[in-house]
Design brief:
Chain lengths: 660, 168
């Protein structure tokens, strides 16, 4: 047979595809095991798990990932035995399956990052032990597999490759192979033969390989196979790599095949490239649009003017549809993140002796891939905290008259241009009084400030860095661990997070995120003589002010707003705008932004209105720019900076501190 | 003609400079420049280069040479420095010259206000001298200084909003 060797690049591409698929398969596998544990359709789950393992085995063998291949192979056998012999699905099996899943994932990660890893050998022992304790070891040969002559269980100590080179005089090679198979049949199990004996390739081949499982390799002398008329040389080796250069056929289950037929796997980068180009096209169109409206003004009566504006309007409409559709390609259902959680909750609740039920809602809610990748971590944090610190122990819950099993609800929904994710638990909740106490104890707030905080504001203190680390506030120990990191991550995604809670009844963390990071809805305004934009997501309210309503407190401008006094920041002064000369001109508007537990107001000259902006990266070659992370290009070609409210406020605080 | 020896020559104030042509992507007229707060003061701002946002350095300020100010002849050289695209604002682009390697003096012994770290060498042509710039250092030297002086200011970034501005 012709040995086809992949070029390095082809191999790299194949591996990439494999890694992506592997992770997906393992996630599905994980889900099936969870279903199995929670008492779903037993046979269906077992069949699916087996199918996933089989696909995984085929894929990993094709690329020569021996560790993966061997373990998945072994596990597949385990599953088959459990299924066929109707063994009980007990806790031990579930744990074993999770361990297999984790090991496979770990090994995949190892291969992906080029860190040499091998499957934990004890796992094989565990599988063997499981099979032997249930008295089902040695069910070999029971299950005729698809590749001839037979694929049966490899229940021995090891897997061997038997390399046989044909004697050139051997005419009927397939019958030669059969003879050899007969000879070795007593010593173990033939797992696979390459090339297949029923294929035409076998007659062309000058050598063939038997994948052989044997309990005792010493019982298999090479001489046994030395049939002179057929065999030239024989070599038996401990099996290392099953990749023979020829990818093994991947026998995916029917469901998997069906999915693949409808899906197109595309690199995210390619979609991004198209999205960028579409963005530029939109900008180009709006430049044309502006010229068109000038032409309309000048040549109202000409016939071509009408045609031109119609064509322009058509182009605009089509482009905006195009943009929406390209954006949609990047949109993925949040279930991709959610499906990690059942396992997280299960493992942690077992560890902490809690009884927790996880309810997930709105799993089909779609959001941009870049966001999807980024929200996993903060969500896991919230969910873990809910299990660890929110839900009480079953005994405690019983004592409180609550059901023994606590409930954590993950819920995603769309709200206009935002996605809203709630992480809710029916656990202990927070006591705002304790928050006030610890804020004072920690020196974050004075007693008076703390007492003035509304309950909601007091609870939002949890997001401040250093507020509730375990060493300081033992009462709510750990619950706040990393909460500031959660907040920072969410804010970096132009989102907001809030917590609401009733002591004794539980708490809800609410994340609000934009649907995408590539396009934002922003308010455009003039400050000084420059045009700026602020994302609508960071704007609480915009209000018109008269000079007389602005008061000064110890030299700083403040405004009364919703029963509060908020600090004002004049953007033109704060940004040191070159050539701005309107310090004395009365400002007309205040844009109120909310940051963590505080409100601030930006004083600006004039509002332009809301717009959808395509975000362009702002070069930050000198590493000095914090107040803006992106820019957008207007219809007239002008560059508009998109300001970062949090950075502006922080900057202003620093400036004040330096002055003082 | 060997492309390697070709130099784009330009003027800032009264001095003639050059950069090798292979780093120059294109030369454009000066569009509206949007200033960006917090960028170093030798950065004039950002421009829209056909949908791409490119920061533009006022080269005269960087080299501490008095420019004759923006005029009709002002141009922006779009250059590639270590895979970063940057615009260089100059008073005028004069011509593309061939500067053979043998005519380049490695150490500048002529009087110029430009710091030696930005100079690759001086090309001695029949009728003029041209200062060949090393663009790598033009971005780098200040970058390092700027970053180290900013480190202190960066520290409180993660701190909770509070302090003297907190009126609520």
């Amino acid at each position: 047979m012709d040995e086809y060797t992949f070029t390095e690049q082809e191999l790299a591409e194949l591996k990439d595809v494999f890694f992506n698929e592997a992770s997906e398969i393992l996630q599905s596998l994980n889900q099936e095991v969870l279903d199995l544990e929670s008492g779903g359709d037993r046979d269906e789950s077992l069949k699916n798990i087996q199918r996933y393992l089989h696909t995984f085995k085929g894929n990993s063998r094709a690329l020569g990932f021996t560790c993966l291949n061997t373990l998945s192979h072994k596990s597949e056998d385990l599953l088959r035995t459990v299924h066929d012999d109707s063994l009980d699905v007990d806790r031990g099996l579930i744990d074993l399956l999770f361990a297999i899943n984790d090991n496979l994932q770990l090994t995949v990660d190892g291969y992906r990052t080029d860190v040499p890893v091998s499957v934990d050998g004890r796992l094989f022992e565990r599988i063997e032990a499981y099979l032997s304790t249930t008295g089902n070891n040695g069910s070999a040969g029971k299950h005729p597999g698809p590749p001839p002559p037979s694929v049966s269980k490899d229940n021995g100590a090891g897997v061997y490759d038997i390399f046989v080179a044909f004697n050139k005089k051997c005419k009927k090679k397939s019958s030669g192979v059969r003879k050899i198979l007969k000879k070795i049949a007593a010593h173990g199990n033939v797992l696979d033969i390459l090339p297949r004996i029923d294929s035409s390739e076998i007659e062309e081949a000058d050598r063939f390989t038997i994948l052989f499982g044997s309990a005792d390799p010493s019982a298999l002398p090479e001489q046994l196979l030395a049939i002179p008329s057929i065999v030239e040389t024989v070599e038996i080796k401990k099996h290392e790599s099953e990749a023979t250069g020829q990818p093994a056929p991947v026998n995916a289950g029917p469901a998997v095949q069906r999915e693949q037929a409808q899906m197109l796997r595309v690199e995210a980068q390619r979609v991004d490239k198209i999205l960028n180009l579409v963005g530029e096209l939109v900008i180009g169109r709006s430049i044309v649009g502006q010229v068109v409206s000038e032409i309309e003004d000048q040549f109202k009566k000409e016939g071509f003017t009408k045609k031109l504006s119609e064509a322009d309007a058509f182009m605009e409409k089509t482009l905006s549809q195009l943009q929406k559709n390209v954006m949609k390609i990047r949109m993925l259902p949040i279930s991709q993140v959610f499906r990690k959680f059942p396992r997280v909750v299960r493992d942690l609740s077992v560890e902490k002796d809690k009884e927790v039920e996880l309810v997930m809602q709105g799993e089909k809610t779609e959001l941009d891939k870049s966001l999807l990748d980024a929200i996993g971590e903060p969500l896991i944090h919230l969910v873990r905290n809910a299990v660890d610190h929110g839900i009480e122990s079953p005994e405690e819950r019983q004592r409180l008259g609550k059901p023994r099993t606590g409930t954590i609800t993950l819920k995603a929904s769309h709200d206009g241009n935002q996605i809203v994710i709630d992480v809710k638990d029916d656990g202990a909740g927070f006591d705002p009084a304790k928050f006030r106490e610890s804020a004072v104890a920690k020196g974050i707030k004075t007693r008076e400030e703390a007492d003035r905080l509304s309950d909601g504001d007091a609870m939002d203190l949890i997001f401040l860095s250093g507020f509730s680390t375990a060493d300081v506030v033992t009462d709510i120990s750990g619950r706040g661990y990393g909460m500031d990191i959660v907040r920072t991550t969410v804010e970096a995604l132009k989102g907001r997070i809030q917590v609401r809670s009733q002591p004794g009844e539980g708490s809800v963390f609410t994340l609000r995120l934009p649907l995408t990071l590539a396009i934002i809805r922003a308010m455009l305004f003039w400050a000084g003589n420059k045009l700026f934009a602020l994302p609508m997501s960071s704007i609480e309210k915009i209000t018109r002010v008269k000079d007389s309503t602005i008061q000064t407190v110890s030299g700083k401008r403040v405004l009364r707003f919703r029963e509060k006094v908020i600090s004002l920041i004049a953007l033109d002064e704060s940004l040191d705008l070159r050539g701005s000369n309107n310090g004395s001109r009365p400002k007309k508007f205040v844009i109120v932004v909310g940051l963590a537990d505080k409100l601030y107001g930006f004083l600006v000259d004039r509002l332009v209105g809301q717009q959808e902006l395509v975000i362009k990266v702002l070069d930050n070659h000198w590493g000095t720019v914090n107040c803006s992370s992106g820019a957008s290009i207007q219809g007239d070609g002008r560059v508009v900076l998109i300001l970062d409210a949090a950075a502006l406020v922080t900057r202003e605080i620093q400036r004040e501190a330096q002055k003082a | 003609m060997n492309k390697k020896n070709q130099v784009v020559s330009f003027r800032i104030g009264n001095e003639l400079f050059g950069v090798y042509i292979d780093v120059v992507q294109e030369i454009v007229r000066v569009p509206e420049i949007t200033p960006v707060p917090e960028m170093p003061d030798f950065v004039e701002g950002v421009i829209n280069l056909r949908g791409k946002i490119v920061s533009t350095v006022e080269l005269g300020k960087k080299l501490k040479i008095d420019s004759s100010g923006q005029s009709r002849s002002s141009r922006i050289l779009i250059v590639d420095i270590e895979r970063k695209t940057v615009g260089l604002l100059v008073d005028a682009v004069t011509e593309i010259l061939r500067v053979p390697p043998e005519s380049i003096e490695p150490t500048p012994d002529i009087a110029t206000a430009v710091g030696a770290e930005y100079i690759m060498g001086v090309g001695k042509l029949t009728d003029k001298l041209i200062i060949l710039l090393d663009l790598k250092n033009i971005l780098k030297a200040d970058e390092i200084r700027k970053l180290s002086s900013d480190e202190r200011a960066d520290e409180p970034m993660g701190a909770p909003p509070g302090g003297s501005l907190a009126a609520a």
